[in-house]
Amino acid sequence: MSKVLVTGGAGFIGSNLVDRLIEDNDQVVVVDDLSMGLKSNLQTSSHLKFYEHSITDHEFIKNLLMTEDFDYIYLLAAVASVADSVARPYETHQINQEANIFILEIIRKKKLQVKKILYTSSAAVYGNVQDLPKYETSLVDPLTPYAIDKFATERFVIDYGKLYDIPTVAVRFFNVYGPRQNPKSPYSGVLSLVTQSVLHRSTFTIFGDGEQTRDYVYIQDVIQALYLLTKESDVVHQVFNVGAGTHTSLNQVIQTYESITQRELKVVHKKERPGDIRNSFANIDKLRKIGYQPRFDIADGLKEYWKSF
Ligand code: UD2
Fold first, then answer.
1. In CATH, what number is assigned to the domain containing residue 257?
2. Looking at ligand 1, which residue's alpha carbon is closest to its atom 31?
3. How far apart are the CA of 213 and the centre of ligand 1, in A?
4. What is the rounded distance in angstroms from the CA atom of residue 257 to the CA atom of residue 138?
5. DSSP state of 234
6. How many domains does the chain have?
7. Contacts from 184-190 at CB under 8 Å and sequence distance 24+?
8. Does residue 300 sit in the same domain as residue 237?
9. Which atom of ligand 1 is nearest to the CA of 206?
10. pTM higher than 0.90, yes or no?
């Protein structure tokens, strides 16, 4: 049984991770200010302690780290919306970068012994550079406060680890989808929006021709990757792409969904979203080398997702 801290544990990815940790009998502490996450995403369990708190509260974070003896720390708390980071660059920076560095700093100063700290970055760091697939060594071009903070923090986490001998690792998520992805915001992941439209038989808007592709990776594959990266003690001070390693167009997604659900989706086309990238997909060889095998292709993932409603 391990003691695990998940910041942002009430969010989409965090809460799915928490479920898996509890299933494995771990003792889990979640810190989430519920700005994006939902309390209802969390199960009630004697294995779970929940703090509705911002990670930017230094006193709180310091006390927490000093009183609990965490084996593993997953840093998922973030302002996850790019648009929000553009509207509030300074505040999002406090959350997406500064608060995470503060956690590292406490661990360094107090010489806390952790088995692994995992930081969650994003494919957004690659920006608009078009050569595909994206390797971890590909050129980065972070274009928004969100992407800049993600990239800078990922470097901090890795280099802090190297400099002060703290076992850290970072991941770059591609387009994660699955149960509990919140479809409420217009900036929600497209698959949660498509799902809502199929569910409510409402019209779905495709921006552009629908031929844009993404590396859609199902949440359970993401959990598999997070597990491998934390449990493999030799894997430190590196960054890993987390994707399915394939790319699918929006039109293909819709066709696949229609055949799974036997429902026809009404669509309208609008102009391409400004700044949208055309294609994106991950090279996941590095992750495969430590044993990762995506188990859900887009059809399997959508089937599972659909079953959750
Ligand atoms: C993702 C992230 C974004 C940023 C970017 C970096 C999400 C929600 N977005 O954007 O924050 O990190 O990666 O590369 O995680 N689309 C429609 N109709 C809709 C919504 C979307 O056609 O109602 C299109 C959209 O124009 C895009 C594609 O679907 O071409 C995927 O959109 P997305 O927002 O899910 O993901 P992405 O990769 O553009």
1. 3.90.25.10
2. 190
3. 10
4. 32
5. T
6. 2
7. 185/81, 187/81, 187/82, 187/83, 187/84, 190/214, 190/250, 190/253
8. no
9. 22
10. yes
